[in-house]
Structure prediction request, 187 residues.
Amino acid sequence: MLQFFSNTKTDSDLDIFQLISLQKWDKLKTTISKKRYNESMLYNVYQESENQSRLTALQFACYFRPPLNVIKCLHSAYPEAIREKDCNGNYTLHTACMYGCSPDVVRYLVEQYPQAATKTNKKDRTPFLLACKSYLSSRAPRSNNLKRVQRVFNMELLNILETLASVAPLFCIRTDYYGLGPLHYAM
Prediction:
């Protein structure tokens, strides 16, 4: 599903999804702030097996753990994107938790659409469960100072779980379709 684009085009020739996948955050913000897009450019139709699904730029950006200002920029350009699901039933908040976005990004997404914290995807997984399952592995450190880096990521995960639990406290114990809960995945 994720496409990485070669850098053969100039930045001005790249569309919004290419800028996101290349993590050219400044150029993306400039393009959006100058309104050099239309709404149809802020979502992409992709083929996943036989299913066709829309993926918003806001959700796609979460795959790459963008800074908060990029998320705010994408959200202000297309606010409805935060309420859209992909073909797996994931909202943007689910994707952010699954791919290890920062606590600030998760907090912002919860503030903009708190109901997403109570929604489950097709595998009956909430953002809380997805954060426990995926956050630390998605942020796998490539550092020699492993213990210090892991402490930082553990604190980030704790902040994310506190944010999610503040709006959906009972979802801390909810299990997915395998019967596994957040603690099972966190261990």
